[in-house]
Write a structure and sequence with these properties.
Radius of gyration: 17 Å
Distance between the termini: 32 Å
Largest sheet: 13 strands, antiparallel
Helix content: under 10%
Number of strands: 15
Length: 215
Amino acid sequence: MRYIPLLLLCLLLQACTQTQKGLVDTVSLALLGPDDIEVSSQQIDALPYASIYLRINGGQRIFVVLGFDENGQQKWITRDRSMVVTQHGRVVKTLGLRDNLKEVTDLQHDPLADPLRLTAGASWTRTMSWTENGQFRAATAVSHFRRLEDRTVSIAGSNIACQVWQETVELTGESTSWTNTFWIEATTGLVRQSQQRSGGEDLSLEITLLKPAKS
């Protein structure tokens, strides 16, 4: 794993400017190289920004700082200007990737919107649209949730007790299904880790929430 010196972080931060009043400063960090990025808990705490680790399609793990926090959605912008948008810890849109998740409907009924009241067997139906090999696709997706064994995960120097939920997603009228897994902090309901697929076979994301956005 590769460690980022605090000086380099500061230089990158100095290159960023505020772009919209009332929103979190736009800033992104994603260093190139073959190794996963590792940022110390001291460096994470020192930054005034929410941050995540992000891995896309099994590639290098990168460190990304929150660009915008608006209308209940967090917009994480990488150095190459790709964007991953999350809501309640779920990826709901991506931009700038080889293939992208375009839209997810009925987000107000996503069981992750109230995760500490999530119960086994909970279900959710929505429409998803995405690109796959450059071709537009859309389908109705049906999810069912089941609780796995609780786990304590180590994130940014802290041990966090989590409920672990597995979501099975099936596309109506197709023989396509997959599973997403969410590690939900037992005290706050925040999704602290997740492994998600967002429609296409080549659109998988792993996210670790290192430092939550301030409410």
